[in-house]
Design goal:
Distance between the termini: 43 Å
Strand order of the largest sheet: 7-3-10-9-8
Number of helices: 15
Strand content: 15-25%
Number of strands: 10
Shape: elongated
Largest sheet: 5 strands, antiparallel
Order of helices and strands: HHHHEEHHHEEEEHHHHEHHEHEEH
C-alpha cells in the first residue's frame, strides 16, 4: 500500500527533502544512482559526505531510496517516485513551440476520421516524449445520419446504417414474404424520419414507443419490416472492445536491455493488443479530473514491464469521457515536461471532438 505524501512530509525536514529531491532529479536525468560524495558537491548547504550519508540512511529506512544491485549510490524506489510526483513535482507549462506543434498536427487531421486524429496524437506524443504514445478509445455510439434497406433476395435485405461521422454499418435481416419494392422504400423512409440524429439505442427506444402510430400509418407487411428493422437495431454488437493505438514502441527498446527486460516489454505490447485490462483503465479515466500517473506496478496492465504511464482522459461533444491518451516510458520519465504536454493534447482532442458534433 502506497503511503500518502503527508506521511513523509511530516518526518522529512528541509535538508532531507533537498537531498531526496537531488537524488530523484539525478535519477530522472541520467538513470543512474548517486552517491553521498556527489550529493555533497551538489548541495548548496556544504554538508559533508558523512552527513549526507546519515540523511540517505534515514531516507532508505523510510523506503524512499534504495541501492540498485551492488551500487554504492542510491536511487528512488517506486514509492519514492510516487512521493516525489505527488508532493514535490513542479510541473511547467507547455512552451509555445510545442503548443503550436500539437495544435497544427491535430488540426491537420480535422477533416479525417476520428481514428486518424487519434493516430496522429499517438505519434505526436511519442515524438515529443521519446517514449511510446498510446491512445485507448471506446467505440463511440453511432449517431445515425441515414438508414435504408437494400433487397438482397426474396427473403433477405441489408439495413445500411450511416453515422454522422461517416461510419457505415451493414446488417443482414430477414424480410416478410411478398414484400414489394414500394413497401421496402416506405419502411426505410419511416425509420429514417425517426432515427436521424439519434444513437442506435435512442432510435430503438423512440420507435418502440410509437407502436400505435406505426399501426395506423403502415400496412401489415410494411409494419413487419419496420419491426424487423427495430429488431436489427436492437442486435447487440459484440462487447465493444476499446481501440488501441500505440506509436513509438522502438523508443522503449534499446540495445542495452537485458533479455528479461525485452521480454517484459514485448509482453506489455501483447497485453495492449489483446486489450486486457483496458476497460478498467478507461473506467479509472472516467473518474479522473485530469492527468493520471501510474508508476511501475501501480496499474496491473503496466506492472510487468515496470513502466511509468502518464494518461489524460479526453471527451466527446457531450462532455463524456470516451478515451485516454498519453505516454508510456521508463520510470525516469521527465514528468515535469510530459505531464502538461499530455494534458494539453487531451484538451486539443476534446475541442476537436466538440467541433465534430
Amino acid at each position: 500500500m502506497v503511503r500518502p505524501p503527508e506521511d513523509f512530509l511530516s518526518v522529512l525536514n528541509a535538508r532531507s527533502q533537498d537531498i531526496f529531491r537531488k537524488i530523484v532529479e539525478r535519477y530522472l536525468d541520467t538513470g543512474s544512482p548517486v552517491g553521498s560524495r556527489d550529493l555533497s558537491r551538489m548541495l548548496q548547504s556544504g554538508l559533508s559526505p558523512a552527513s549526507v550519508r546519515n540523511v540517505m540512511a534515514d531516507l532508505e529506512d523510510l523506503g524512499l531510496i534504495a541501492a540498485p544491485h551492488t551500487s554504492a549510490g542510491r536511487a528512488p524506489t517506486q514509492e519514492g517516485l510516487r512521493f516525489f510526483v505527488d508532493a514535490m513535482l513542479e510541473v511547467g507549462a507547455v512552451n509555445e513551440t510545442e503548443r503550436s506543434q500539437i495544435a497544427q498536427s491535430i488540426e491537420g487531421q480535422h477533416r479525417g476520421q476520428v481514428e486518424d486524429v487519434l493516430t496522429e496524437a499517438s505519434a505526436l506524443l511519442s515524438g515529443l516524449s521519446q517514449g511510446a504514445g498510446v491512445v485507448i478509445a471506446t467505440k463511440s455510439d453511432l449517431v445515425l445520419r441515414h438508414i435504408e434497406f437494400v433487397r438482397l433476395d426474396a427473403s433477405r435485405a441489408m439495413a445500411i446504417l450511416v453515422g454522422q461521422d461517416g461510419q457505415v454499418e451493414n446488417r443482414i435481416m430477414e424480410i416478410p414474404p411478398g414484400l414489394t419494392a414500394s413497401a421496402l422504400t416506405q419502411a426505410g423512409n419511416y425509420l429514417a424520419r425517426h432515427v436521424v440524429g439519434r444513437t442506435i439505442a435512442e432510435a430503438r427506444k423512440a420507435l418502440s414507443e410509437q407502436r400505435a402510430e406505426q399501426r395506423q400509418e403502415l400496412d401489415e407487411l410494411t409494419q413487419k419490416l419496420v419491426d424487423a428493422g427495430i429488431a436489427t437495431l436492437a442486435q447487440a454488437s459484440p462487447a465493444s472492445q476499446p481501440t488501441v493505438i500505440v506509436r513509438g514502441r522502438a523508443n522503449l527498446i534499446n540495445d542495452a536491455m537485458a533479455s528479461d527486460e525485452l521480454l517484459r516489454m514485448r509482453q506489455l505490447f501483447d497485453e495492449l493488443e489483446s486489450k486486457d485490462g483496458l476497460l478498467e483503465l478507461l473506467g479509472d479515466a472516467e473518474k479522473a479530473q485530469g492527468v493520471r500517473i501510474f508508476i511501475g506496478s501501480e496499474n496491473k496492465l503496466f506492472s510487468l514491464s515496470g513502466s511509468s504511464v502518464i494518461l489524460s482522459p479526453y471527451k466527446d461533444a457531450n462532455d463524456k469521457v470516451v478515451g485516454v491518451l498519453g505516454v508510456i516510458g521508463p520510470t525516469r520519465l521527465n514528468y515535469a515536461r510530459i505531464v502538461p504536454v499530455v494534458d494539453y493534447t487531451a484538451h486539443v482532442i476534446s475541442a476537436m471532438m466538440a467541433r465534430k458534433r
